[in-house]
Amino acid sequence: MAPELTPILDRRLVIVTGKGGTGKTTVAAALAVAAARQGRSVLIAEVGGQEQVPQFISPGHPPVGYAGSELIPGLTSIHIDPHEALAEYLGLQLRVRGLVDLVMRNKGFAQLLNAAPGWRELITLGKVWHLAQMQDAGRPRYELIVVDAPATGHGLTFLDVPRVVGNAVRAGPLRGHAHLVEELILDPEQTLLLPVALAEELPARETAELVQRAQSDIGIAIDRVVVNAVAPPPFPPGVPDDLDTRLHAIDDAVALGGLPRPSVLATCASYLRARHQLNAGYVEQIRRDCDRPLVILPYCPGGITGAGPLADFAEPILAAGGLPA
Ligand SMILES: Nc1ncnc2c1ncn2[C@@H]1O[C@H](COP(=O)(O)OP(=O)(O)OP(=O)(O)O)[C@@H](O)[C@H]1O
Ligand SMILES: [Mg+2]
Fold it and tell me: Is the pTM of this model over 0.85?
């Protein structure tokens, strides 16, 4: 039986991460939409890269940028650009807008930034921390913040920066801020890292490494792993399991009433079976290597866009335990 998991909607911060193209943005968007539909006030924060979340949730929606915008009732989306976050941070520190513009446009400052590793990560996470502190009438403005984090590799560096900065800087506001961010990220009651994997060789291996390193190097909580785009059983209920073999056995000259030749249908059926078997094998490998309950999400031809389909897609993620493979 799967261990009891804290319901995902009881967290403050869910950081969705994984290798490039595994479905991080889809999963983050799905989770955020589902939470908003359950009445939570939700923020989805897309970090770096091209802004995609508004298109996934409300196709045709214009970019929301750093200012953010409400996409559907209860769900605000923002795209965090580190330069804008830095300008905002400096504004809070220096309190004079003109001075901030001056600093940001200064060539020496730009060179300093290029030479300073980790400022993007720290400032981005600082922005997330700041958003998590925002209150309206004594209640958190955002009950749940979902972060669509950069791809793994970058993803873990991203989370490790507060610790590194906190250790490297002995005093001053930067150390204080790094400490606050680290405190939020490492609080298992509040923050969850949600890895998204594909049931294929490389992503499976990288996910196991991610889970291991997230635990040993950073100490952030991971209580489940999402395995996305898993091919469903090859044939619908009622269709014989050996459909591909049976199709292979039919003489190719047999006419199937306008359908492709039996050998073509046999190849399609064999492909579906092979895909399902390959995915099923790697699901088991991920389960073993990650030692966590898995949430299996199906392959959906054409992807998943729009609030309704995304909310349905998120249902297994919201369920308390892992789903059987
Ligand atoms: N379960 C699924 N079934 C079918 N297509 C999917 C599924 N999940 C995601 N996709 C599609 O796969 C593509 C990549 O998904 P997505 O953009 O969510 O991945 P990502 O991990 O955020 O990628 P990147 O690393 O580039 O940011 C998209 O076209 C998306 O619609
Ligand atoms: Mg993405």
Answer: yes
